[in-house]
Amino acid sequence: MFKNLERLSPYLAMRAAAYIFSTPIKFSIPEKEKKALANCIQERVRIPSIDREILTFTWKNSGKKVLLAHGWSGRGTQLYRIAETLHKEGYHVVSYDAPAHGKSSGKTTNILQMIATISHLDDQYHGFDYLIGHSFGGMAIFNYCKTPRKTKKIITLGAADNMRTIFDNYMLSFGLNKKTSAHMITYFERKFKLKIDDFSPFKAVQNLQTPTLILHDEKDYDVSVGSADNIAAHHPNATLIKTKGLGHRRILRDENVMQHIKSFIQTS
Fold first, then answer.
1. In terms of CB atoms within 10 Å, which of 139, 149, 159, 188 comes out highest?
2. How many domains are there within the chain?
3. pLDDT of 120 strictly over 70
4. In what order do the strands lie in the sheet with 153-157?
C-alpha cells in the first residue's frame, strides 16, 4: 500500500508513515505482568508541559530511588522483574506507561514527550538515584542526562545508538526508499524545530560522566548489538556487557542480567 502511495504522492506516503511512526502499538498485558501489579501502587500523574496524563507503578520502600523507562510500544510492567528484584533489595522503584503507551493518555508521542515524562517524574521525586531504560526508554534517558542531573548511575538495555538509522529502518520496513525517509526527517525537524541527529544516543553521551552500564544481547534482532558498541565507544564512563541468547525482551527477565544490575548499582 505504502509503495503504491509513494508512486502517486511521495509526500502523502511520508505523512501517512509519519503518523504510524508516531503511534505506538498497544499489546495486551500477559499474566506474569498482571501478577506484578498486585505488589505495586498505581497512580495517575499529570504532566503539564506536554498536557498528558500517565499511569505510574510504584514499589514503595525506604531505600534509594530508581526510575524504570520502557521502550517504544512497551509498558511499565514489562520491567517488573527488574522492579521486583530491586524492591527486594530495599530500593524504592517507580515505573510508568509513557504517553500514548499502555493506559496513559494520547494516541501519538515522540522522544520529546518521553524525555519530558522522565524530567517531570525526576522533579517530582527530587531526583532519582538510578535511571534504568530499555530500548527507546534508554535513548530518552541518555538525552535527558545530556545536562547534569542528580542521577548517580544509569543502566540501559538494548538501546539504539542513532536516530537516523531508526528512521531509515522504519521506512524500509514499509518498502519506502531513503529519499522518503529523508523527507520525513525534514518534516519532523520543521514541525518540532529540532535536529534529529542531536538526539542520537552516541552523540548524547559524549560528555556524560555519569557511570553507565550498557547491557545488550549479541542476538538482538530489534536493535543491533553494534549500537551498544557505538554508544560505549563514545561514552567517557561506560561499562558494556553483552549477553547471549536473550534477544531484545528476554533480557528484561534474565537472572544473570538482574545480578549485573544489582552489582553495578551496589558497587561504589
1. 139
2. 1
3. yes
4. 41-47, 52-59, 92-97, 65-69, 130-134, 153-157, 212-217, 238-243
